[in-house]
Amino acid sequence: MRARIAAAAARLMAEDGIDDFALAKRKAARQLGAPQSEALPGNDEVETELRAYRALYQAEEHPERIAELRRIALDAMLAFERFNPYLTGAVLKGTAGPYAEIELQLFPESPKEVEIFLLERGMSFTTHEGRRFSGDRAHAMSVFSLTWQDAPLKLSVFDPRDERVALKTSQAGRVMDRAGVAEVGALVQETAPKR
Predict the structure, then answer these.
(1) Burial, 112: exposed, middle or buried (Cβ in 10 Å; 0-12, 13-18, 19+)?
(2) Is the Cα dihedral 47, 48, 49, 52 positive or negative?
(3) pLDDT at 171 over 80
(4) Which stretch of DSSP H or E encloses residue 139?
(5) In what helix (H) or strand (E) does residue 186 lie, and over which residues does it extend?
(6) How much is the mean pLDDT over the chain?
(7) What order do you get walking across the sheet with 102-106 strand by strand?
(8) How far is CA 161 from CA 6, 22, 178, in A?
(9) What would the DSSP string read from start to end of 47-103?
(10) Whose CA is closest to 129, among 156, 100, 163?
(11) Nearest to 17, CA basis, from 93, 99, 78
């Protein structure tokens, strides 16, 4: 049942654009009639199934979409370069769906600097508070959501001291992978269409 839930969650993520692993797993378990007590698969199991699904059913369009999202991410990173940007999340991993959010981590001297940067350029955005973890310590952050080149962009703004810390989405979760401008530039070059 665990493998079936992982496969169904991967299909939901690929076809319906769900980016939240927990939501996809719960929805898949419900669709399969799994009991509430059924142990759900881990995110890594769903991610493996998601990669396999996309390789089989979305072999052409998915790599093109990832390349486009990474190009847009690099453009945003260059625009926000003074805030030490890092790409993280599904776009970096290569598992992003068609409606995926580009996730950047920024480390300015003050979160106000990012807000002023956006306001000076007349960019509309929404903001809320969030948190990431390192060990047993929570790290508060401001989150700005906006649109960049017709793609949703989420800017997580941290204290500059957190740049050297391995951040996780939950206390027990895995460390989040992240890549700087140079690494993302290399990924964009690797996936650029051959002429």
Answers:
(1) exposed
(2) positive
(3) no
(4) strand 137-148
(5) helix 181-191
(6) 87
(7) 126-134, 137-148, 151-157, 102-106, 86-88, 178-179
(8) 37, 30, 16
(9) HHHHHHHHHHHSTTHHHHHHHHHHHHHHHHHHHTGGG--EEESHHHHT---TTPPEE
(10) 156
(11) 99
- Tell me, what's the pLDDT at 94? 86
End-to-end Cα spacing for the chain: 46
* d(C-alpha 85, C-alpha 184), whole Å: 11
pLDDT, tens digit, 9 for 90 and up, residues 63-113: 888 899 999 999 999 999 999 999 998 899 888 877 789 999 999 998 899
CA angle 83, 160, 134 (to 5 degrees): 125
CA atoms within 13 Å, Cβ hemisphere of 7: 6
Rounded Cα distance, 135 and 167, in Å: 8
| CB-count burial class (<10 Å; 0-12, 13-18, 19+) for 55 | exposed
Q: What are phi and psi of 44, to 5 degrees?
A: -65, -35
